[in-house]
Records
---
Amino acid sequence: MIQLRTFAGERPIVEPLNLQDEQATLCRDCYLHSTALDPLRHTLFVEAGYAKAKTLFMVCGKMIYMSRWTNFARSPIIQDKHERIYWTQCNGTGLRVESASNMTNDAAGTNLSNLKPPTAKPTVIVDRGGSGADTEAIQFVMTFIDTSTTPNVEIAPSPLSNTLQYIDGTDGVKLTLIVPTDTLANGEFRYKKKRIYAFLNGNYYLLAELDRTEATYIVNPLKVSTTTAVTLPSPPLPTVNVAPTATLIQGGDNTKSTAFVYTYVTVRDEETAPSPASEVITYNDGVDCATISWPAPTNPDVVKVRLYMAVEGDYYLLVELPASTTSYTVCPLDDDFINGNQLDPDSIVGVPLTTDNYDPAPKNLCGLIGLPNGVLAGFTNDGDCEMTGTVHFSEPYQPHAWPVEYRIKIRYKVVALAEVPEGVLVLTEGRPSIITGSTPEVMQEHTLETYQSCRDKRSVTHMGTAVFWSSPDGVAVYGGRQVKVVSENVWSREQWQRLEPDEMIFGIYEDQLVIYPQAPVAPDDALTQAEQWRLKRGEGVLYNLQRGDVTRMTEGNVHALLYEVEHDALWVVRGDNLERFNEGEKMQGEWIGKTLVVPAARTYNSARLIPEAETLFSLYHSTNDATIGRHDRADEIDLAFWERSITDQRPFRVGSAGRMRGIRLGFKLIGKERLRAAFLAQDMREIP
């Protein structure tokens, strides 16, 4: 007696005669989520208008689509006030961003790859002493005192020194002087004293009388008393023929130096790297004023400019201005602002510059994913032949900034990225890699010891911490730092290749893998026994990972899907329609059991079903070893020799197939409600 108290799907790799009793040679539109046999439900129509969809994304309670394959990532900032959504499309459009409330079908967004830092350095003009400062022109002369005569004689002055613009009482001055060497007959020096005069507004004023040996004179600050002007001796007395050299000590003892940079800030508060630094200026801290100028930004997304000032080697925010502003005057220029001496406690003035390495995302960035440490990751492929790749990482919680130093080279062309507990799984056209590390600056790449490449980026799917994808040999999975082919006991490599693994979409439904081939399957002419399993054009597969079997789905031709956790639903697009998987009316499930070899001259003549509703029970037979159980070709499905619709649990007689030695016998179950069990016996007394 054959007892079917549990039902399983197909395992194409196993020859039909070697299947277990509960396994099927054909299982179509059945939902084997329990031990019973249930029909799958139709997809539930939601709305039309999705014929162009290649990617689905749920945002703000509405479904949008992209007509190109797109990778989305939500903002890594929790409670992001801008509710930003980021995406890439692998076609040179760069990193895009848009507020969630503004997302639409085929949204264009803002291209953050165009968010370039300023390239022109600011210019600075110092206003000495600030508004109304007493800046004057001053020169200096020097005279010698002949001490060999009584009274002493002051000789005519030297030529005037170079002119300085100084602020009286603020700036200092340093004079370089000659030392007289004239001597008398007795060997003594003729000139033992010298005097320094300031020439100001056409008058001379005595500053100091010095010993002859003094080669420099420094006064800081310089304050010239203009109360009493003097008249200097004039030729024909001997003249000092070398003028003193004057050097301004700007600001006196309060002189400092600084430089300025500026950054751009977008409407979403994204700040760029800084401009080149201005020329270094010297200023009198707290006294002088400065006017800083820069070109206006050309990027319409930029709404603010931030101006930073260098203080002791580091830059601090001086002011934040509207983007239309192209200059700013600070008077007086005082570095005390970095100490937090602000009237407004919420002011950001004085915060340090942190965007030095904030490079924009590459224009050919694609494969975007979000990581739990506030980082976004993407990849590019390098060279004309794109034989190698590069994985890029953003600055933590700064998705617009992608520092050059946060890049990791990959030895193969990258196909897709996936987040895993260890870090980032890099799927390539060759061997996959794993990138580990808590932050981008310490991440490292390790190539995995496997040859399961990724054939289609659309197949990359998460189930818990595991990642599945379409490989050349079957369904590959990464988990626990290992890669294996989980479908090796379901499909042979030849059978899998006939499903065109280079064009597949994977999805998840209640811990089962949903597979929709996208390319027309190869023709089935001259199929060998090992190659015989294939889908009808447009069919999909529901792959039970736990049992290791599959169910065919007639509702195929799906070109976009999304498992969405908020509604716990698998959304699919078939043709123009957006639908929800397995949520409509019940379909008609079809389950054909394994081929039974009836020993000797026996026959099965009794049966019993336990259905919830009407179920069609059919028997068929064949003596052809090559075709029995092959239910993938419509012209060779074995014809039933007996069938009946069963509505209750009472046992019943079935038609005899004749008493023939070695007959191959099978049966088919078709219904729209649950079937709990089926029994087929050689005698009515065997049936429970």
---
Amino acid sequence: MREIALVFGWLLSAGAAFGQPQRFDLVVYGGTAAGVLTAVSAARQGLSVALLEPGRHLGGMVTGGLSATDHGRKEVVGGYSREVYVRCGKHYGREIEWYPEPHVAERVLNEMIREAGTVTIFLQHRLAEKSGVRKRGSEIVAIRMEDGALFQGTVFADATYEGDLMAQASVSFTWGRESSAEYGESLAGVRPKDRNHQFDFPVSARDAQGNLLPEVQAEPRGQIGSGDRRVQAYNFRMIFTKEAGNKLPFPRPAAYDPQRFELLARFLAAFVKEKGRPPRMNEILLPRQIANGKWDFNNRGPFSTDYIGRTYNYPNAGYARRETIRNDHVEYTKGLFYFLANDPRVPKETQEEIRQFGIAKDEFTDNENWPYQLYVREARRMVGGFVMTQRDIQTELTKPDVIGMGSYNSDSHNVQRFVTSEGYAQNEGNMEVPVTPYQIPYRILLPKRGEATNLLVPVCFSASHVTYSTLRMEPVYMLIGQATGLAAKMAIEKKCAVQDVDTAALTAKLREQGAVMEWKPAGSGDAR
């Protein structure tokens, strides 16, 4: 199926680049899982849909390494989002699979598109960098790709992690962190020292000559609660295996420099001294077993797969600069695992545990077995007429225009690594605060009316950093995608702006499609 989709996309690319503008009811830019379900949802309602993806694969993080799904409370994941995991379960002969292999998730998403019938896929179609959007007043008329292909639509959706279509359409957006005063959020801005993913004992941030070690910033932390333009750390979610016949050794990067990991070496030595034992692998990495005996490796601890402080320029960077940032993440991650598996400063017991694993050679087979998608946890965020903030996930949990529910922690990864006044390394920005399941309003998908009346934004939606940190989970993106496709159908049918969609009818239809709109604690009745 993957190969068929690639060939199909290439053929369409040739036709679109040299033919007339192509017209669709809905044009979805971004083949993330949210983009796929936006397209599927609209097609199931009979719309003609163009799904444009800059890369060579669909699914974003769902097919790009994030296989240990951040589902939160499973009972509030409904509708088409749940359908994805049910379909994955059928592949493995069980009711549902929340942790599928990347290539299985990709197969499922491609099958859903094919079955929807009226979705046309355009792979390797990237928005022209500075002249990609044509507007007439508040309406987007067409978008143009780098190769000159032109796509016209009645409604458009920006389902990218970066929000490039939204930005070129002159829709208001922000990035980084608001101050605690801006929206009255106690969790906003620069954070005090968190107990998680932190240096739990003193580790010097300077060498013998007083120079900063690599991966430590020279800038000060900033005042607690103050806002900034710093962005939480990205990483690659690596898929590893212990199976001898399917694992590849951790590669040594061409420009490998073990000095880059001096701070990690010092932390490991301090750990042994403080605890009287070497660290276990799951104290410096977060391995989660997924289907078919594979493992999804994520960040854990003070110095791990999160590349702290290297994301600040990504949200607004041009394509070339973003590619440089991505490649830098690749080199960092390769170097990290090579260091952990080979450097003599890593305790022997820890190293032996890590050496059980290798890169799964049956994943990402056309990309040197490296994940397709950099984990862009947060980039631009739209500033719509309504901005979802901390109160909407903690106290004001119900919404009149509900389209689904969220339930994952407020979860921001570290933003910076600085030097304390005592000369020690410290991380800042981690936030893990539980929430009660809350309703997600349709309004967060909407630009301000004067800026765009036929654009929906299911990924870079209108939320503060604090609130985006709980909404930014792939099952939520997908359920929002379902609502986006349905809202597009309703706007087209009624010939109205997306801001004027009948939200009561939208909620009712989503309920019919299996979306979960209410949650009750265990023992108090059904979830919906």
---
Amino acid sequence: MHAAHKARFYSKMPSRPPSLRPSTWSVPWVLLHLLHSVSLWMHAAAPELQHWFPVGGQVGETLTVTSVGKNNDWPPKIWVSNPEVRFTAEETPNTWSVEIGKNIPPGSVLVRLFNEEGASQARWFLINETQSFRETEANHTMANANRVPIHRMIHGRLSERQDVDTYQVALKAGTTLIARMDAYVLGSTVDPLMRLLDADGRVLAINHDHYHLDPFIAFDVSRSDHYYVQVMGFPYPANASQRFGNGDGYIYQLLLTDRPYMKASETLKEEGSVRLNLDGWNLHDVRFPPGRAGILPRYSDRATEEQRRLIHMENLSPEKEPNDRLETATGISQAARGSLDHPEDVDWYRWSPEAHTWYQLEVQSGRLGYEGDCLLKLYSEDGKEMASNDDAAGMRDPRIEWQSKDPQTCYLRVSSLLKSSQPPTHYRVIARPMRPSCHLTLESDRLNIQSGDSQELKLSIQRTFGHSKPILIKALHLPPGVSMPLVTAEANQKEILLVFHAAHSSRSYQGPIRIMGVDLDNRWNQYVAGKETVTTSVNNGVPNGYLDQVFTKVLDPWLTLTSASGGMDNEEP
């Protein structure tokens, strides 16, 4: 309990006659004592941060945002992973002014709220290139739709009962409207649905799931006119209700643009030449920087690192037809681009792995936004099937982890599991050599210790691609008086307990620390531990978690050190 809280509390308490024992206190006095205790407990709690609304802004923008979560003592302190994004608390509780620096690159930052009792979970705030537009209610029908200029990033929330948000946009013939909604990847509690209507209210396009649960519409405009985009959604995770939902957590951002939108860009190597392959919409307006042909400018903000990483790939081999049999397989070094031109199409690739090497074999298709459900199989030189996978990589994309043995020629076979009629399914098939590695996952991203006490934190160890070395676990950036003994995780250990101790003389502290592992036989191999934000658990037929997020792992757990002596070693962490 804070000293100031104690002073205020006890100064208002009625004095107790010395003759009365606790067993003879009056009922009203006991109730008053309990009410004050509850009040103190509420004021002493660490702040909560579930979401920001809006969840992002444009480079160079200054805006007002709301923090969703309990904050009993306003204002809490705030920590941001990049000082170019400055949050300032306003007088109204849960209201902040945010100033985004002009030189910060597009992407995202992590933010925590904290007070003397502890810190909130880390949540993200997005930095976009696209100009922001903030939704205003009521906009549930075409008649009261928000009018949005084309090429805007709309920040909205389904806050009304069974809410529908409607946006009017003027489109020109000959362009393609891109409407991409981000909600699932933001950690929102909505499973969204989006549809496009013409001025007469006819539904022109509708989409529910495109990138995981987030919808996407690409519509070729044949007539210049006003069009309407409507957003609605069901609760996530799913429950028994079949009605549209609403709530503070139903946040989203919606990109509406008719500018170049890149689905994929690749450099293809063929017969000593290199050519650039672009796939997307409105690409006739692509312009390269002077003297930098082949260096693509950024197009259309992506919410997650996985989405950004997937766009560009270099040194792919183009598929050469016919390659529908092992004997006519297309030769590749590490990666190729191909297409399944009809439901029965099968593509074979010839590939020579290095001996005694781990490989990650995968197909990228659904994650790039292509339709279809690919199957990947690995065959030996004599045509024997050695491995097969359907969707380990997510979004209907297969992935195989495999270790080569003796030198040989291998074959990769790509086919479709969907046998109904469909457009060509484009894909990349990749055979990437991998080094032994470790994934270190913390049970929590927050650690609370009192001076003179110890605290345990569980660390899980997942070894990949043949890693079998002991790992030394250490903590960095600990404040004076706090220690964590070095721990060695043996090759067969899957989890280990880390013990932190705070000396009696240690002063109060708030700030991030770092936990990492290093291979004992090679200190250059380092692995940073963090709290994962993704999960593959399943509930009610849909993922009871998130398979991709703005940050899939929160590094640098937060340490709260409480000292009876008071004072802090870092007033401004």
